[in-house]
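Sequence of PAS domain-containing protein (marine sediment metagenome).
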Amino acid sequence: MSRQNYEELFTNTSDAVWVHDMENNITLANKACEKLTGYPVPELIGKNVSQFLAPEALALFRQAKERLLRGEAMEQRYEQQLNRKDGSKAIIHLATRLIVSDGKPQAFQNIARDITEERKLQDNLRFYLREC
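Predicted 3D structure, token representation.
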């Protein structure tokens, strides 16, 4: 696969993909991040990831980062709550991996899938089943 193919895959995938550096600043983001957050990609670059996390989600974010830095594998996606530009909340399934170069941690790669609507449907179904 050529570099151009990889770039097209990154740009056009339906999942939000971004990279943030060791200080949590976004260095790379795809179009799906724009849809997820409400921010145009150029506005996302340089922003700190913590700006997008609900306060209760920051602790989970820090735990995931610490686990990866200790060398623990994170095979499972984990759920996070995200703040959008318009003030609404999104629920995402997030997979994060550490990017290492020359044996040193360099950045974190993140792949997120918006599950907000799916969660609302599940909650409505649970409510409906309890009421019946």
